[in-house]
Amino acid sequence: MPKPTLQHAVRRSLPTPGQHTLWLRYRAPYHWPSTLGFLTARCIPGIETCIDGTYRRTLAIGGHHAVLHATPLRNQLRVHLEGVPSTALPGLIARLRRFFDLDADPVRIAAELSRDPLMARLARERPGLRVPQGWDACEQAMRTVLGQQISVAGAMTLAGRLVQRHGTALRSPVAGLSHLFPALPALANAQFEDMGMPRVRAITLGTLANALLAEPGLLRRGQALDELLRNLCRLKGIGPWSAHYLALRQAGAADALPLGDVALIKALRRLEGDHAKLAERALAWRPWRAYAAQHLWASLGSAGTARR
User: Could you say which EC number(s) this protein's record lists (predicted)?
Assistant: First the structure.
């Protein structure tokens, strides 16, 4: 996949400094209802909103506090930026493309997954389903640990507390957006007591933050899945579920699959009966098991937000 540049987008800079509008191209089809539903359920209070088909979030970029508004249109994603210097646009475009999984080849993925009858059915129901990615390694790492053995709603409540305690107030707050997500150095030195989570999970937050600070490329894209999983599972508090979920959501590992995920097991049994075994069925979905997992989660509808 070529490295995204301004050639992957149409840009219009506005008269107000720092304001730009981008139109990001992607391969059709794209099942936007699934992506927007996924983001809506996982908005961190103060950091993100997803209302009426527009995703908005705060970000720190080049020392600036910024806000983005992303709205899917016909075969392109319109992104309005506020507070972003022009020099930061190429890197931000690359991040946006990764976050929304815009560089996926949906026709190829669907064709290969559809060799399995179940996946063929799910692909017809949600053509162009994508696997949304984390905004950055720090944020996704914290989301993953906060989501261990808890509902999505519960995890977002904890994430909101984390932001209020350790985040930075937005210099120019707007409706629904008040903070930047905590910076990695702040989290590496933070105390997480009295946040309403088990002590072991609080310790894991600090462990993972320090691991990312010591090794910024820990969750980099493009590394071998088995090696990534081994490295993550060496960290205290990170087991196979968390390792696979981080690989799937942050490292862009298309074949990652958290086999112990209760929502995936529930979805598969709903579709194929109580006899269905996720580990056995997943063999037919390689090398696109992350997309198969997203199809299974999506098949649960709003009930799927109970987990993942």
Answer: 3.2.2.21
